[in-house]
Amino acid sequence: MLNLRSKAIFAVASIAGMVALGAFSPSTISSMEKEYVTESSLREKLYSSLAEMGFEDSLQSKLVDQHHVLQQGLDQELRPLFVPAQGMIEQTIVQLLARGDLESAFGMIHTPAPATPLCLAESEEGLNGKALSDLANFTDEERLQTLRKRPTILRAFLKAGGHLTVAFPKDGRKLRKQDELKIFDGLLREFQGRLEQKVLPMDQLADDLIGATYLFRSSTGEEWVFSIRATQAIDARDEMIWELWLGPKEDPLIAERYERIFNILQ
């Protein structure tokens, strides 16, 4: 099976071959190449960037073919797989924003408490300092390693022009310590207009709503959605369901997830 990059090269090469045979004029081929690249550019750039970062093969394959991955199992096995995948996708969105390939990117982190990476000082990167006291139940080093990069990635997302809403139930701030809230509130001030908190009028989030969701639009108007279902690191349980969605907004499976998140959390 051809991968995404191979398909793109094959398509353009095939059109060029037809020009050589006289099937199309040079002006026609120019138009067709431009149309093909425009239609496939966001998808191609997204998955190419993920592949370059070493995105886990089985996850990538399923996301490319099905736009959805679901796995159930032990947290210590799945968290080191899914959280880095989340970080890689978020980092790719940052890269596309910084290069001007995206016109806009809007994210919502929907968790029981203010998002963990935004309650950690960037220098701590999820490994040291008092903010990590909530993670004392993690004895597996791999589970701590998954928190390393996301404080930096989310700040880079905001600096690149992304907009981020941190949504949590009405008592969510009570789950954080004062030093964590100090960091979070400082970021709200630093990125005013790009980062906001949204207190939801509910006591708790349903399990299938816990995670993060992004809507990003290319400069050509193509809209894609990335969403993850998970529990926060401070609330990890032994047996968990993790899900990823990644694909064009018009895909029925993607649209269903997007509408569920934004209709309930608006």
Secondary structure blueprint with pairings:
Elements: H1 4-20, H2 26-52, H3 57-66, E1 68-74, H4 75-99, E2 102-110, H5 141-145, H6 150-159, E3 163-169, H7 178-190, E4 195-200, E5 211-218, E6 223-229, E7 239-248, H8 252-265
Parallel strand pairs: 2-3, 3-4
Antiparallel strand pairs: 1-7, 2-5, 5-6, 6-7
Helix pairs in contact: 1-2, 2-4, 4-6
Arithmetic mean of pLDDT: 76
CATH architecture identity of the largest domain: 2-Layer Sandwich
**Number of beta strands:** 7
Secondary-structure class? alpha/beta
Describe this protein's structure.
By secondary structure, the chain is an alpha/beta fold. It folds into 2 domains: 1-52, no CATH class; 56-265, Endonuclease, Chain A. The protein has 8 helices and 7 strands; from the N terminus they run αααβαβααβαββββα. The chain has helices at 4-20, 26-52, 57-66, 75-99, 141-145, 150-159, 178-190, 252-265, and strands spanning 68-74, 102-110, 163-169, 195-200, 211-218, 223-229, 239-248. A 7-stranded mixed beta sheet has the order 1-7-6-5-2-3-4, sandwiched between helices. Strand 3, helix 7 and strand 4 (195-200) form a beta-alpha-beta unit. Helix 1 (4-20) runs antiparallel to helix 2 (26-52), helix 2 (26-52) crosses helix 4 (75-99) and helix 4 (75-99) packs parallel to helix 6 (150-159). The longest helix is centred in the first third of the chain and has 27 residues, at 26-52. The radius of gyration is 20 Å and the shape is globular. The N and C termini lie far apart (41 Å). The model is unreliable at 1-39 and 124-139 (pLDDT under 50).
